């Protein structure tokens, strides 16, 4: 299986553990990731606040790279990047005027028929979902994980075409195939505060604290994420939560690919398990599989 790969800015900086763990897991699964040549930022949280045209043109400029590389599908792990690409693609497909303007800006055809997918999609479907259990080397069945999808992967559903917008199960199914127990809980797609982290940090502390508390009530030992922004808010704000609410949550926040990789027997160093601010090693010791 061969896919184009758009890491985006976060996976080359603050979310290196997502980039690295995705690559080693794909290698185990026999999935080839081909990074797009000279890709550019998709605009993320900023561009669409300044210019609608810029917000659409930046993702489409990246999709325009694919034909020369012989690629028809591109995997985009960052939820914010995935959202911007899907929105841009939907915009040029449904508005001819916008499409003409974008072509003028990027000086290339839009390649709006390219298939934009999140890694959870192929991982949760055959043949990969059937291959995952055959790669498991560490028994993590006693580990209870709350799968947190955030608000961008599944919404708006007609645009993202990803999973149920209210109660998605793709990450749950992937981790269960990896031998990990996932819990039933109500905050799978409740916002953590997203980019308010800088402008309104109190909002982020409150919302992220609610997410973690609900995961604890469901009996989770850790939270699995698929979004660098969600990871940053849930992991880095726990000291602030202690200051405001009196108790440190001590809730490890891991990318789902790190959990998959650990179950596959990949070393903690290769998965960057030690990179998180809230220590994750203790949950593996708890289930007899120390990192």
Automatic annotation (TrEMBL):
GO terms for molecular function: oxidoreductase activity. Keywords: Oxidoreductase. Pfam families: CCG (PF02754). InterPro entries: Cys_rich_dom, HdrB/HdrD_reductase. The keyword Oxidoreductase applies. Residues 4-85, 145-235 form the Cysteine-rich domain. It comes from the Bacteria. The keyword Electron transport does not apply. This is Heterodisulfide reductase subunit B. It comes from Desulfosarcina ovata subsp. ovata.
